Amino acid sequence: MAKIDDINQHILRELSRDGRLSNLELSDRVGLSPSACLRRVQELERAGVISGYRAVLDRSAMGAGFVTYIGVGLSEHTKEAQEAFERAMQAAPEVVECHNITGNIEYLLRIECADLVSYKRFHTDVLGTSPYVAALTTYVVMGSPKDLRA
Fold this sequence. Notes:
Radius of gyration: 20 Å
Oligomer: single chain
Number of helices: 5
Order of helices and strands: HHHEHEEHE
Number of strands: 4
């Protein structure tokens, strides 16, 4: 396990802002020599702290700027029901996040689609046909003043 000291925190913060930073630029920003910086980044990768690098996508530019979160309550609390629901969500391209959570409901979904019409189609044709869905609560995202997901 990699030690997460102040320098490693700084490295992680910089890479999470811009994963395409060159080692030279990163080392300059965190105040290390390039070789010391590279060793630390490689150790963070080996330890699994850095599990990958991703592009941050502008969903609006891709035609999927209508974002909702949906709380889903299942009618049955069985392994079979959960697995069937999770398979259905894996197959639905509109579902970009699916979290099994604690509380009054079983799942929290992040849905990204083009507009209200396409959301309604997903709501009716995917969630509405799932035999285990008992309750849905939709939250439409009006803005995201802070979003650090990569």
